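pasting for the record
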Amino acid sequence: MITVFSEDHRLRNARTELHGGELVSPFESASRAEIVLERVRAVALGAIQAPSRHGLAPVLRVHDGQFVEFLSTAWSEWSATGNKGEAIPDCWPARRMFQRRPISIAGKLGYYAMAGETSISAGTWEAACAAADVAISAAEGVSQGAAAAFALCRPPGHHAARDLYGGYCFLNNAAVATQFLRDGGAGRVAVLDVDFHHGNGTQDIFYDRPDVFFASIHGDPAEAFPYFSGYAEETGAAAGDGFNLNLPLPRGTGFTLWRAALEAALDRIRRFSPDALVVSLGADTFAGDPISSFKLQSADFSTYGRLIGACRIPTLFVLEGGYAVAELGINVVNVLSGFEDR
């Protein structure tokens, strides 16, 4: 399996995250990608290559143009005002308030942020663009006939909606890759999100479309981030009705219940009969993850990798979350090795 990876992920080196009422060092850090890459090399998973540059055209196929322009200039605008810290929103267009894009950078942050934990720092935009290029380049391999490819993306992307960032995500790598596969000739693409947190951004982008089936297994949003997305009754809209499957699970879920949800999702995916499958691969379902509550063990990741592989669908894996950093490489690569039945 080819792994695509960019050194430019290091350009995002945020210092602050709002967590538990404090500004702390971000859980989403450069060490995550490095540890996964180290494990890919250790098990000789396959060749590692840098991405090609694809520009913004594929990104603009799924993201709003003004949103992309905001991300590209947010740090320079924030810095130009004389702010000393990293850019964090402090005001949102809440219920019954007017939904108009402000001129002020402080206002624009709130307009485009789905959550307040994720700071924008120097290098964020460049790293996000590199991650999108990683996903597209890996998708190219699948579209050209590879059975599977791994996009080792950082920052992650599945919380980024058409015109919203947050949850450590800026551009939706999995959605950009999915649309790239569609534009490259795949008639139908399925997206399977196995991150602990609901892939609200991916759902938002494809919610009214019948050509992309989205399935997400995640913590119950009644008590887990992102709280306002991921309920079972969210099944799609308009032509996309019936092409969105949410499988929320309770706090403390172990592998037996989680596997049953995965098998239900895979059954729906097989019935959808996609030409390609994109897996938003978050490893924060691990029992030791510091900001999640599922109880999967490292061996379980190998097992579910084999279950996905048994579908025999050309598959693109895109790295999302996972914050038990010491075990992250083992858990992620266990999925990939399991997929290849190694």
